[in-house]
Design goal:
Helix content is about 55%, strand content about 10%. By secondary structure, it is mainly alpha-helical. It has two domains: about 210 residues, HUPs (Rossmann fold, 3-Layer(aba) Sandwich), CATH 3.40.50.620; about 80 residues, Tyrosyl-Transfer RNA Synthetase, CATH 1.10.240.10. Helix 8 links the parallel strand 4 and strand 5. Helix 3 packs across helix 12 and helix 7 crosses helix 8. The radius of gyration is 21 Å and the shape is globular. The two termini are about 30 Å apart. The model has no long low-confidence stretch (mean pLDDT about 95). The structure holds adenosine-5'-diphosphate (ADP) and tryptophan (TRP). Adenosine-5'-diphosphate binds next to helix 1.
Amino acid sequence: MSKKILLSGVKPTGRPHIGNYFGAMKQFVDLQNEYEAYVMIADYHALNLIQSKKEMEENILGVALDYLAIGLDPEKVTIFKQSDVSAHTELAWIFDTLTTMPYLMRAHAFKDAEAKNKDISVGTFNYPMLMAADILLYDADVVPVGQDQKQHIEITRDTAQKFNNTFGEVLKLPEHIILDEVAVVPGTDGQKMSKSYKNTIPLFATDDELEKAVMGIVTDSSAGIPINVYEMHKLFRSEEELKSLYREKEGKYKELKEALLTDIKAFITPLREKRAELEKDISYVTKMLEEGGLRANAVAGSKLSQIKKAIGVL
Ligand code: ADP
Ligand code: TRP
């Protein structure tokens, strides 16, 4: 029996944090044997935010290294750059013609940007159509993501449905995979961990950075338990172990932070070392991306032909 298909990706917008890892990236690794997996570097999505050649190049290579360092196996998973597969932007255009402006105006990301009175690019407004194309070109069954991407998967399903109703059953409706325990990983201030809130623990942080971040966790407490420290600690240890530790050290915030720091360091050190090792052979990484791009193009190209036939242009 053929495997079900997984597609996901992250934007190359800077260093990933443990929220990205536990919320999404870890699932790519955990599911890579069970699914036929496609994992993208969403560089055209990132272009809405990163408009510097040097930064873009560094970030793309960065995500490729991150993927390999956390354990994605390029023999099993097609790892590729979105921009290497022009079918994505082409299909996004087709979807643009089926989608209405009022529908896209209801998207959270657009509403948030609007609330902040930002000068919103057309690319930001259209973001969900490119993401729908990313997913639907591969007939993905599942899309592992964090909670904040849930609406994008719903939009993808709506778009597929609308296409199918108009042109016939061509597109497969995907499901999200969002794990409850890590759907929204909190940051050092207790809010959702996010690059834009400056409350992150970078996934490949140095020991110094880790110390600074952990010691800086805001210690709002309830019954002697520093909630933000505890919530983060849950990512690294079972609740059973934590309960006895936090009871034993009730009210001793510094010691509890030190215990968390030890656990985070034990988790991050080998990842950081693996990434440093991979960095020594960049040509291997670029070759892997090239090969992934070829594989992705073959799959997406044939789906796009099917789509173009269905709409009557081929
Ligand atoms: P950021 O909000 O830090 O810019 P991205 O938008 O690059 O993160 O998200 C990449 C992936 O990580 C997405 O699947 C997103 O849902 C997930 N993610 C981001 N932040 C968190 C978080 N705090 N908890 C769980 N998942 C997250
Ligand atoms: N929008 C996603 C994020 O901000 C990144 C992304 C782009 C993606 N295309 C995708 C995720 C397709 C899953 C599937 O994190």
